[in-house]
Write a structure and sequence with these properties.
By secondary structure, the protein is of the alpha/beta class. The chain contains 16 helices and 15 strands. Strands 4-3-9-10 form a 4-stranded parallel β-sheet, sandwiched between helices. A 4-stranded antiparallel β-sheet has the order 5-6-7-8. The protein has a 3-stranded mixed β-sheet with strand order 12-11-13. Helix 2 crosses helix 3. The protein is flat. Bound molecules: zinc ion (ZN).
Length: 494
């Protein structure tokens, strides 16, 4: 049974840049494809935001009663360094550096990716196909693109002919880039490219010595271009036209524009009704980057072993922090923001748990529960507006607090409705997991350090600088550095 709330769902479509009413192509069934990670390094926090956003969408569609087939791929071959087409394969490069097999790299980082997403309590997708497991399908797609006249072979590699495609179609629909701009901006890095035009992209690349992963094909021993896997795998598992295609905003161009061009070349169809993009996560106002040290791994936030945050944070807190912004807005992560989210989440959960203590002998209620329920679903239906949904939940918490101090009344029927809906939103739709006890042993350590900081502050107030310096130096010798601010001190693990 599809819920009545389903008919009001609106989703922002990146291709029209408008919110549109959502209706699945096939009644009761939804097909959703989300571009997964390239498994050559630890799960990136920015990627986690994307997958948490699509987890919410997956969960909500299921809650509404749809059968959802959620396909999220793993890129284990074909994603080249620097995005230029002469770069080294990211997985192969890591294998070379770590002196292990490429598939060991893939295995190691796939496990890490799954582990991190499990800590965030995201649901596994229905199918998680790999690029290397679908070489036959990708060769088939290339044959179809060549047959339709939009692919050409040069020296064992096959490229997509954008100029030809633009004669009858339009490349760049999603990003809105026009092909003259792209032509001017494309660089031919070493001048030796086989491509007719610099903006053409590879469908198949002949392997040179640096590419240890390669497969036989009608054109050469080589490997598929990165954009191709999503076209071949989405077609295989969801058909030529499906409901939702998602990914991080950085994939809009060129990846998704290339996917659309490939699909249109094969069967004339833009593959998805709705294109959805989750926005970026920045750290302390800047892009996250390993080279500038403005970088933190999810696990380092959970265990507190990092130089950015003053204490460890539970995955639920990080998830709550992400939901406090709309998935299409840029979101900035900082220590203060996480401290505030921690307080906010705890207020929300304890506010909800009040409901189990309330005595409801009244016949009347001072709360319009039906209105509150429809407000909550209006927010979800408004392109999954989680910050507004959270505001509605706090409205209810405010009321429950008033019932507790007996300034408002609540009857038993309304109490049961609030309990049921609040519970579904928190755990079924937003996917919080109160059994997640990360961070665990670190918690007591943090509490001890905070206790020492408190004792030291008192010593400083009493002008006992000998004791205060002693505490600072002893902590430093244990790898805990105190940073004194005007009124208090924070610490970092060094
Ligand atoms: Zn993709």
């Amino acid at each position: 049974m599809i819920s009545n709330f389903a008919k009001n769902l609106k989703i922002h479509n990146s291709i029209t840049n408008k919110k549109e009413s959502f209706k699945p192509i096939e009644k009761n069934n939804v097909g959703m494809y989300v571009c997964g990670p390239t498994v050559y390094s630890n799960a990136h926090l920015g990627n986690c935001r994307t997958f948490i956003s699509f987890d919410l969408i997956f969960r909500y569609l299921k809650y509404l009663g749809y059968n959802v087939r959620y396909v999220r791929n793993l890129t284990d071959v074909g994603h080249l360094e620097n995005e230029d087409e002469n770069g080294e394969d990211k997985v192969s490069k890591k294998a070379r550096l770590e002196k292990i097999e490429p598939m060991e790299v893939v295995q190691k980082y796939t496990l890490d990716f799954h582990d991190v997403l499990k800590k965030f309590n995201t649901l596994p997708p229905s199918i998680e196909p790999t690029a290397s497991g679908h070489i036959i399908e990708q060769i088939q797609s290339i044959k179809q693109i060549i047959k339709s006249g939009y692919g050409y072979e040069v020296n064992g590699s096959v490229y997509f002919d954008i100029e030809k495609f633009n004669q009858s179609n339009k490349y760049g629909k999603l990003s809105g880039r026009n092909s003259d701009d792209m032509l001017n901006n494309s660089r031919d890095l070493d001048g030796s490219s086989d491509k007719k035009n610099p903006q053409d992209f590879a469908l198949w690349k002949k392997a040179d010595k640096s590419h240890i992963m390669n497969w036989e094909s009608p054109w050469s021993n080589g490997f598929p271009g990165w954009h191709l896997e999503c076209t071949s795998m989405s077609k295989k598992y969801l058909g030529d036209r499906f409901d939702i295609h998602g990914g991080g905003i950085d994939l809009k161009f060129p990846h998704h524009d290339c996917e659309i061009a490939q699909s249109e070349a094969i069967d004339g169809k833009n593959p998805a009704n709705f294109w959805m993009h989750a926005n970026m996560l920045t750290l302390n106002g800047k892009k996250m980057s390993k080279s500038t040290d403005n970088f933190v791994l999810p696990g380092q936030i959970f265990d507190g072993k990092n130089k950015i945050f003053s204490k460890p944070f539970n995955p639920n807190v990080l998830k709550f922090f992400m939901y406090q912004a709309h998935y299409r807005s840029v979101l900035d992560l900082s220590n203060d923001a996480l401290l505030a989210s921690e307080k906010g989440l705890s207020k929300l959960i304890s506010g909800f748990q009040l409901i189990f203590e309330l005595e409801c002998n009244e016949n009347e209620s001072d709360f319009n529960v039906d209105k509150w329920v429809s407000n909550c679903f209006d927010k979800l239906n408004d392109d999954f507006n989680t910050p507004m949904l959270i505001a509605e939940l706090f409205e209810c918490v405010k009321f429950l607090n008033n019932v507790k101090i007996k300034s408002k009344n609540l009857n038993i029927v309304d109490k049961e409705t609030i309990e049921k809906i609040f519970n579904s939103i928190l755990f079924e739709i937003l996917g919080f997991d109160l059994n997640n006890d990360e961070p665990n042993e670190k918690d007591s350590k943090t509490e001890l350090i905070e206790l020492l900081i408190k004792i030291r502050s008192q010593a400083r107030e009493n002008k006992n600088f000998k004791l205060s310096d002693e505490i600072r130096d002893e902590l430093l010798s244990l790898g805990i550095k105190l940073n004194d601010n005007k009124n208090d001190s924070s610490f970092e693990l060094i």
